Amino acid sequence: MMKIENLVKLYKDVRALDGLSLEVKPGQVYGFLGPNGAGKSTTILSTLGLIFPQEGRIELFGLEVFRDGKFNEENLVEAKRQIGYMPEHATLWDFMTPVQTLDVIGEAFEIPKAEREKRVRELLELVNLWDDRNRKVGKFSKGMRQRLLLAQALINDPELLILDEPMTGLDPTGIAEFKDIIREQKKVGKTVFFSSHILAHVEEICDTVGVIVKGKLRVEDNLERIKREFLKRGGYTIILETNVPVDFTGAEWKVSPLGEKKYRIVAPEDIREQLHDFVSARGAKILTMQVKEPSLEEIFLKMVE
Amino acid sequence: MFWGFRLEFKQSLRTKKLWVILGVMMLLYLPGFYLQKASGEEIETVQQAVSILINNVNGLGGFFIAILALLMGATAINSEIEKGTLRVAMSKPIKRLSYIGGKFLAHTVVVLMALLLTTLVGIVGLAWLGAPMGSQLVTDSLLLNGLLLLAMVQLVALGYIISTFIKSSSTALGVALVVMFVVFMIMPAIVQFVAAKDTLLSENPDWEAYQEKSEEYKTKYLFYVPTTQIDVIVSDATVVKGDVTNPSVEYVGIGHAIKSNLANLFNLVFLTLVYLAIAFYRFLRMDLR
């Protein structure tokens, strides 16, 4: 559905994208993670033809829209018919009401008037802005603007929804509603690609994650597999509780006491069996042993390092 | 193209710039008519009426609408990038060329409306002064509006160049004002002075030689100042006949003036096309971030 190959974007001397490649498959909810300035927005803007990369290739819906410094505008326009995009840090036209805004955007997609009117109402109800339909957007709060931005991205019932830091400025209720909308999109078979630096959001709703650091994709996989891989590579943390205090002198692992008989042990591999033997050899018994899975945040920080 | 046009047209009509500039212009227009009436000078012929109308529209409109056109153009693209509305618009299935084409067309229509409003107020003012009306008033004011529109379109296009090269809209506004000041006030003053130096400021001042030199220099050295090109054309709508002791000013019409100054008309058209080509090319290749 969306394929990016070896994309390079230079801003003067800065390599914002350094040979980035990624693929979003139909039906995926793809979380695009990265620290600030990693190249998330640059990737999205390149995909939509809003900025010009210097090298690489972009394919949308099987259409080649960009190759080696040139966009194919016919293909790009064709692909955009099936894309909904919600930008980061954007406002809409202040002098318009939400109804007028969505109507104008609907016109760009050449949606017939009657259908447009129906869709505008549906979407404003979906994002809880129907009661404010006649207020000028200029008077809206940040959260309301974000919701309207989401609504405009959905006006054409897109196959691919591209969202750039979509939850910025939303209150907890707004975030929950937003997540529901994404889940609903996934349920009906739509593809969602969204960038964020708030890992909890990504962890909760994405099935695939790509991590971009300094313009390069560090990892791109199913979330579960990323975690398993991380565990394999030495991310094991075990919380151990024993019946008596244990002297861990001579142990090969990193041990930090959490109490008199409670320890956090970090090891490069699964050491549960060795740990059992080690504790028994010192005349103690394990009361509880809990293998702590790394959060996406821990994985992310490790990768960024 | 029409999507971009409709969007920009609605937007332009709601900008404070437009209404403030038109408001100030009208405030200056109305006392002018009042003073004309208070002077007790009668406007006896249609030609006289047309001549007054041309002076008013060219003088006031040529200045205020020129500012409006340049400022509108100078913030056309960068302010939309700042707000993020351009990213929203261009993420839709719209080609860049059709978007900027529509936007430019909308600005052209807004400028035309401002010019027509100025002309209309001028005609109403003349009627209030009791000036005779005739078909020449309509044809010549239409021709003048066409000429002024060309000049204003050139300024909008110049503004677009500024807007596509300067990312901050407030800096672009500053640059536009400096351009306006240097190109539209300082340069013409210098050229006028050079023309006067060898003719009027010599031991034997020669007014006719100055007129000729001034027109020649304006065409040669101020080809990039559209309002000056209009002045050169419009100045030939009247001719002075008779001798120095008994001169008579005769109105010969804008059509005649255009025919006599095709080089200036060419300057207007050619530079407009060049500016547009630069601005459009830049927009088609620029990063919208």
Structural account:
- The complex is a heterodimer of chains A (305) and B (289).
- Helix content of chain A is 35%, strand content 30%.
- Chain A has a six-stranded mixed sheet with strand order 7-8-9-3-10-11, with helices on both faces.
- Chain A has ten helices and 15 strands.
- Chain B is an all-alpha fold and 289 residues long.
- In chain B, 78% of the residues lie in helices and 3% in strands.
- Chain B contains twelve helices and two strands; from the N terminus they run ααααααααααββαα.
- In chain B, strands 1-2 form a two-stranded antiparallel ribbon.
- Classes of the chains: A alpha/beta (305), B mainly alpha (289).
- Chains A and B meet through α1, α2 and α3 of A and α1 and α5 of B.
First-to-last CA distance of chain A: 31 Å
How much of the residues of chain A is beta strand, in percent?
A: 25-35%
Largest pleated sheet of chain B: 2 strands, antiparallel
In total, the number of strands of chain B is: 2
Major beta sheet summary of chain A: 6 strands, mixed
- Helix amount of chain B, in percent? over 70%
- As a whole number of angstroms, the C-alpha radius of gyration of chain B is 21 Å
- Considering residues with a beta carbon less than 8 A from a beta carbon on another chain, report the largest interface and each chain's count: A-B, 30 and 23 residues
Overall shape of chain B: it is globular
Quick recap:
The complex is a heterodimer of chains A (305) and B (289). Chain A is α/β, with parallel strands linked by helices and 305 residues long.
